[in-house]
Amino acid sequence: RFHLGARIAVSEGAARLVLTLADEGPGVAEEVRDRLFQPFATFGKKKGTGLGLAVARRFIEDHGGTIELLPSAPPQGGARFRIALPLVAREPGAEKGAV
């Protein structure tokens, strides 16, 4: 039986928002870690285009942020990612939702 769960931690410091995302799945194999964010990279028998993490990385970097795969944390294992985004104050009178 396989149980999938997720944890999200948010912290703020040095004018950056840091999100740490973790799941309880099998983790990321060492031999694919360096190709994980490449477009069309697919691994195993899972179906998909292999674009999800590549698009996420591009979006995050276009907004001045970073995304990285962290080592699995014993004992739960799983995949862990850290996303850091700059905190930007809106100009007075700027439209809601504008950055």
Please summarize what this structure is:
Helix content is 11%, strand content 28%. With 99 residues, the protein is mainly beta.
Q: What is the overall shape? A: flat
Give the overall average pLDDT: 77
The first-level CATH class is given as Alpha Beta
The topology string of helices and strands comes to: EEHEE
Say which CATH homologous superfamily is assigned: Histidine kinase-like ATPase, C-terminal domain
Which percent range describes the beta-strand content? 25-35%
Low-confidence stretches: none
User: Any idea what the CATH architecture is?
Assistant: 2-Layer Sandwich
> Total domains, how many?
1
Backbone structural class:
mainly beta
Major sheet strand order: 1-2-4-3
Number of strands: 4
Characterize the main sheet.
4 strands, antiparallel
Give the proportion of residues in helices. 10-25%
| Overall radius of gyration | 16 Å
Report the span from N to C terminus. Answer: 44 Å
Helix count, DSSP H or I runs of 4 or more residues: 1
Overall description:
- The protein has one domain: Heat Shock Protein 90.
- Helices cover 11% and strands 28% of the residues.
- It has 1 helix and 4 strands, in the order E-E-H-E-E.
- The chain has one helix spanning 52-62; strands at residues 6-13, 16-23, 66-70, 80-86.
- A hairpin with a 2-residue loop joins strand 1 (6-13) and strand 2.
Topology (elements, then pairings):
Blueprint (H helix, E strand, L loop, with lengths): L5 E8 L2 E8 L28 H11 L3 E5 L9 E7 L13
Antiparallel strand pairs: 1-2, 2-4, 3-4
Q: Main attributes?
A:
single chain, 99 residues, mainly beta, Heat Shock Protein 90, four-stranded antiparallel sheet, 1 helix, 11% helix
